[in-house]
Amino acid sequence: MSGAPFDADGLRAAGRDLAVPFQVQLTDGRLLQMQRLLRLLPGKRIAGEASLDGRRVFAKLFVAKAGERHWQAESEGVGALAAAGIPTPEVLLADRLQGGGHVIVSSFVEDAESLAAGWARLDAPPAGDPGALEVLAPVLAMLAQMHRAGLAQRDLHLGNFLRTRDRLLVIDGDSVTVAAAPLSAVAAAENLGMLLAQLPAAWDGAAPALLADYQSAGGIAGVDAAMLCAAIEKVRAWRLQDYLKKSLRDCTLFSVVHSTSRFVAVLRTESERLADVLAVPDKAIDTGLRLKSGNTCTVAQVALPGGDVVVKRYNLKSVGHALSRLWRPSRAWHSWREGHRLALYGIATPAPLALVEERFGPLRRRAWLFAEHCPGVSLARHLSPESPPPAAEALALTTLFALLCRLRITHGDMKASNLLWHAGRIWLIDLDACTQHRSEAAWRKAWRRDRARLLRNWPADSVLAAWLDRALPPA
Q1: How confident is the model over 375-399, as pLDDT tens digits?
Q2: I need a labelling partner for 196 at 20 to 30 A (CA). Which of 231, 265, 290, 291 fits?
Q3: Residue 363 and residue 302 share a domain
Q4: Of 351, 372, 393, at which residue does a domain stop?
Q5: Inter-residue contact 26 to 103 (CB < 8 Å)
Q6: Which residues of 100-109 are buried (b: 16+ CB within 10 A; e: fewer)?
């Protein structure tokens, strides 16, 4: 390992430019060797796998000058968990760093998987899926134990739980709150709602059953289904707005570069893979497989390492059209936000990967949207007008549109080619006109248009059109 060891000043100055492995000087003279970074908040916090005295450990570095309170909160939170008998990794060292920072080193949990990773492997399980319930059941039991002890987490999510072959552990002591034991019903409902709000919105109907599992494990008895559902709705609304704001600013999840001539937002995990095509997006379109050539947009499928990407360029078809778009957010901008909105609700849509806008100061010109490629087949080709849809497709259709209507979301262009059947789900593409309506009246008016357009994809006297007319929510 080359290079001088870092102190807190050096870690703050490095920002995101930290290449592993690197060493950190501890106050007792020992060297902590950081091997793999799992979280990096530039100038503030660094967490990851490390080695100390030849032992594999997990290290959290608090390098901000005002980071002492987070370090203290982490130490106190882990202590509160341990005192309540909640399994959590053992703290091996809690100390200051040279240069004004702090460090906490804990034992490394071997052969462990976060429950967030376990959930992701299930690949969007339907509500009530047995495999998904197996993931959730131990978390609900752990929350019941924490709530009885007066403990909760401010930033509760599945990534805060590690599962080994024979036990479940809670991590992230920094977000642990301590109250009089047991928690009040209101506090317990809010904390449980924070977790369940992160499940796909289609799981909302399973909330009463999940609440029953929580209470059967000793959870707070005063929590009822109405309280829990209200908490889920409140937290999800906050998470949605927070996430949509993050999608347009530089943060842990997104890399955003804004100049007088360009605006670029990209998923940080995709920034390196997409770097070349983001630099010259027209070249990617010219060399890719052309899917659509039109006055208002041009679409191409581009082969890249790690999977194909669909690039959609929003053209300016005339001087008048260009002038009309100068001050308004581009359709790419709108599709970028709506794609993230649908994904957060658990509605299948190709993941939006990057957004590029040409700018002239505050004025907007052409724009490009980059999304993952969905290899599905359009419903126009997949469904026969002479028969009802097969059982799986029928369930997917009724589930999707019931959820869209409950959330007051309309697509705006319900051509059958904009609905793809893939991996047992219906995927929505072309989100240029997708909208979540604030009022019931606005949604109902738009839903009538969406519903009528969907039915027009097949002959009015066809079996499929008649089935859809019966199965879809009423206009």
Answers
A1: 999 999 999 999 999 999 999 999 9
A2: 265
A3: yes
A4: 372
A5: yes
A6: bbbbbbbebb
